[in-house]
Amino acid sequence: MSAETYVPAPMPSIGVDVADAYLAKGYQTVPGMSSRFAAAVCGRLLRLQTEFGISGPIAEIGTFEGRFFIALGHALEVGEVALGIDLFDWPNPEVLQRFEANCTKHGLAAARRVTWKTDSRTMTPADMLAKVGGQKLRFFHIDGEHSRDALTRDLERATAVMAPEGIIVLDDMLHPGYPTLMVAVQQWLERNPDWCPLAVLDRETIVAATKFVFCRRDMFKRYETRMLDIFAANIWPLGADFEPHWCLVLGRDTRLAAIT
Ligand SMILES: C[S@@+](CC[C@H](N)C(=O)[O-])C[C@H]1O[C@@H](n2cnc3c(N)ncnc32)[C@H](O)[C@@H]1O
Questions:
Q1: Taking the domains of the chain in order of start, what are their residue ranges?
Q2: Closest to 71 in 3D by CA, of 50, 116, 41
Q3: Atom 21 in ligand 1: which residue has the minimum CA distance?
Q4: CATH number listed for the domain at residues 17-250
Q5: Mutate to test the pocket of ligand 1, among 142, 145, 151, 173 (most ligand atoms within 8 A of CB)
Q6: Could you identify the atom of ligand 1 that is nearest to the CA of residue 64?
Q7: Distance 206 CA to ligand 1 centre (A)
Q8: Contact assessment for residue 231 and residue 41, using Cβ atoms and an 8 Å cutoff
Q9: pTM reported for the whole predicted model
Q10: Strand 246-250 with 240-241, pairing
C-alpha cells in the first residue's frame, strides 16, 4: 500500500456504551499520557475477561489525573472496583482533587473506585489486597516511576496479587526516554516463567507510548484465540519475537515495510 492511500486501522471499541462515549469525547480532555488506542484495547480485554467469567478488582499504579483509569473503570461490571494508586504530588498536590473531579465529571462513581495516595515503594501485596476487599486482581496497569528499580519493584508486587487469569499491562515500553525498562521486563520474565507476553500495543506518539500486555502461560492461547478475532483489523502481521515466545502486535498502522 502506498503512503498516499494509507488509512489507519480502526480504533477498537470497548463494547460498553459509557466507556466508548468516554473514549470518543472525554479521553483527550483529561490530562494524561496513555494512548486512546491502548485504552480501547485494555477496556476490551476487561470485557473479554468478563465474557470468560473472570471477575474481580483491577488496579493502576500512576493514575495521575485519571485519563486511562476512567476508561478501565467504565469497563468493569457492577460490584467490581478500580484501585487508583499514586503519590498525587506531581506536578502539585491539587492533582488529587483533579483526579477525583475528573472521575466524577466522566461518570465513574465513587462506589466503583478506591483512591490510594501512597508511594508504591512502601506498599505491600497485603496492603493492596486489603484495599480491594481481599480479592485477587484480574488486571493491573503499571505506569508509575519509570526507573529500572521501580518497575522491578512494582512488577513484583503486582505479580503477587494477581488472580490466575490476571493480565498485567506495562506502560512506556520501548520508549526512547526509558531504555532500561526493557531490562527489568526481561529479568522479571526470567524470574517468573509462568508469565509470558500476550500482546504489544503499538504507540500513537512518543508520549502515548507502547504498552506490553502479559498473562500466565496457561491462559495465553485462550486469550490469543479470541483476540485474533476481536482485534483482527489491528494486527500487525509479523508479531513480536520474545525469543522464543511470539505474541500479537496490535496497532493502528499495520503496514509491512515496502520492499519494491
Ligand atoms: C506518566 S504518569 C501516569 C499517566 C497516567 N497513567 C495516564 O495514562 O494518563 C506517572 C504517575 O506515576 C506517579 N508515580 C511516580 N512514582 C510513584 C510512586 N513511587 N508511587 C506512586 N505513584 C508514583 C506520578 O505521581 C505520576 O502521576
A1: 17-250
A2: 41
A3: 86
A4: 3.40.50.150
A5: 145
A6: 27
A7: 17
A8: yes
A9: 0.97
A10: antiparallel
